[in-house]
Design goal:
The protein is of the alpha/beta class. It has a single domain, classed as Glutaredoxin (3-Layer(aba) Sandwich), CATH 3.40.30.10. Helix content is about 40%, strand content about 20%. The protein has six helices and seven strands; from the N terminus they run αββαβαβαβαββα. The protein has a seven-stranded mixed sheet.
């Protein structure tokens, strides 16, 4: 029953927030983890800026980005930024997703969005897609795709944001 309520909430939000662009305020939403726990985005944003990346196992650039974010995460203490990786694979692939995450030991929060509802709330239909949300709920960055070196641009944006907040 809870899952249906959250799905309905996401659909309703789509009607009010047709797109969320850089510089705009983010909306309130929840995420379902691989452990079937529900996380409210505000619980993360209240602690630190949140970087959300949308990915799938079949997407090689997505997996490359996860590796780059893994290296990037070493640069920041957990209280400076939270990284959430939202998987877009179908439910039948979740065992492989869990295995992939376990093998690579990523230090991120992993969530699922098998129907791409959250991805579409951000007005995106392509992955990898990355969004950085400030503690003030402002969309700082939206980025689609991944090429080697993109993590340097992302790191620059994170550092710029963190410096401006001191």
């Amino acid at each position: 029953m809870k899952l249906k309520i959250y799905t309905i909430s996401i659909v309703i939000l789509v009607n009010f927030y047709a797109s969320v662009n850089a510089g705009e305020k983010s909306f309130q939403f929840s995420l379902k983890t691989l452990k079937n726990e529900i996380i409210l985005i505000d619980s993360l944003i209240n602690k630190a800026p949140v970087l959300i990346t949308f990915w799938a196992l079949w997407c090689n650039p997505c997996k490359e980005e996860l590796q780059a974010l893994n290296r990037l995460k070493d640069e920041y203490p957990f209280n400076q930024i939270s990284i959430v990786a939202v998987n877009q694979d179908r439910p039948r692939s979740l065992a492989r997703v869990r295995s992939y995450i376990s093998i690579h030991r990523f230090p991120f929060i992993f969530c699922i969005d098998p129907n791409q509802e959250l991805l579409h709330l951000f007005n995106s239909w392509a992955i990898p897609f990355t969004v950085l949300i400030s503690k003030e709920r402002e969309i700082i960055l939206r980025h689609t795709g991944y090429l080697s070196g993109d993590e340097k641009f992302l790191q620059k944006e994170i550092e710029l944001h963190l410096q401006n907040k001191k």
